[in-house]
Amino acid sequence: MSKKKNMAIDFQDNMILLTRKYLKRKIMCPETKFRHHVKERLHVLELVKRTVEMGESNSALLIGPRGSGKTMLVNSVLKELSALKSFKDNALIVNLHGLVHTDDRLALKDTTRQMQLENVVGDKVFGTFAENLCFLLECLKSGDKKLSKPVIFILDEFDLFCEHHNQTLLYNLFDVAQSAQVPICVLGITCRLDVIELLEKRVKSRFSYRQIFLLPGDTSSTEQPASAFDDRLELFQHLLSLPDDENVNKIEQQYDDCTIDPQFGSMWNEYIKSLTTNVTMVNLLKRMYHIDVSERRFRNFLAVAVSTLSEKHQKLEVNDFVEASKIFSQDDKVLMLEGLSILEMCLIIAMKQETEIFDDEPLNFEMIYNRYIKFANQNSSIQSVQKPVIMKAFEHIKNLEILLPVGHSNMRVEKEYQYYKFTLTSKQVMEAVKNYPGLPTEVSQWAASSI
């Protein structure tokens, strides 16, 4: 009897560990099923499909706020097309990322690797980026355009490629797409709504001006969900459910080290389903949904809750989700401010006061510099800082997207006088001041002083 009991305990412990492993993979490595923006997804699908099947060259920009599902949309399109033999056998996909490929040399080197042409290039020496790229594309030719291998270029964080010297990479890719030398599709992904204004004139002239927007709250679903939150509740149940009898074989092929007993899975799923009707749980999910609708943040929240599972803690209690939510209920921007230097916090306070005095009017560096210097001169305990150092701190704040440029970026304005919109509220600034460790009293008082 004791032996049977021990075996049962071991089985249960093993199932919990496998459940935790399976759910974390499912949550953090999402399947490429895309539930929203049906019309926009179809647009991207048709563009890529025409490049592969008809040898047609295209270029487009996929634009939307962070967390709106841009990358997931593209991945779902590529997964669907990879099931087609014509795509799988012929098409080449080149993924470039603005944060990784910070100059054209790195981008070209990785393009060569992804196109598997290192051996072909060898020790050849080329004069320009254009000659390099043309050689790579020529290697894919086998006669006319229809017999050339189509290449799909995915440029994530597209706006960062606009900072490359002379925008050479973008110019050459769009030039090839426009001239139809070989079938290529250039798909840029960005959260910058003003991204077209970042392009140089010669690059603009070669771009198709095809822009696909993913707007928050626009699900464009073919189905008729009762509400957006019901969709979130359905996702909650889906992500925390184990494979049923019909999907066990499919899951075993995908996760051969996560074979879960169907009977255990069925009992687990019934419990997860009961959580979707628990009033405390539903209210918690609603509150989180109203703070942030992005799926990425939601998945991170679930991953934290699932991580609490262990041999000693074999059930996901409502309190586990409550505790996990505390990490994600804090304002990201406030947390970001708490990591700034004291000088940068002073500039943030100066920006807050400037926007309060002038009713949210745009501001520039000179305005903030003068306001900060006035404060520093009135407080002997504040260390004097040279103007170039203050400019560097201002640039850092700008790079964090706390300041957004106003007006066209191609207007020639000295950086001290470029206008920006301050994106934080007074409440956010004051909360950061309150939580900032070791902030000088004079600075705290300055932030709290009425204008």
UniProtKB/TrEMBL annotation:
Keywords: ATP-binding, DNA replication, DNA-binding, Nucleotide-binding, Nucleus. GO terms for cellular component: cytoplasm; nuclear origin of replication recognition complex. SMART domains: AAA. It is found in: Nucleus. GO terms for biological process: DNA replication initiation. GO terms for molecular function: ATP binding; ATP hydrolysis activity; DNA replication origin binding. CDD domains: AAA. The keyword Membrane does not apply. Residues 56-217 form the AAA+ ATPase domain. Transmembrane segments: none annotated. Belongs to the ORC4 family. Component of ORC, a complex composed of at least 6 subunits: ORC1, ORC2, ORC3, ORC4, ORC5 and ORC6. ORC is regulated in a cell-cycle dependent manner. It is sequentially assembled at the exit from anaphase of mitosis and disassembled as cells enter S phase. Interacts with DBF4. Interacts with POLQ. Component of the origin recognition complex (ORC) that binds origins of replication. This is Origin recognition complex subunit 4. It comes from Dinoponera quadriceps. The gene is LOC106743245.
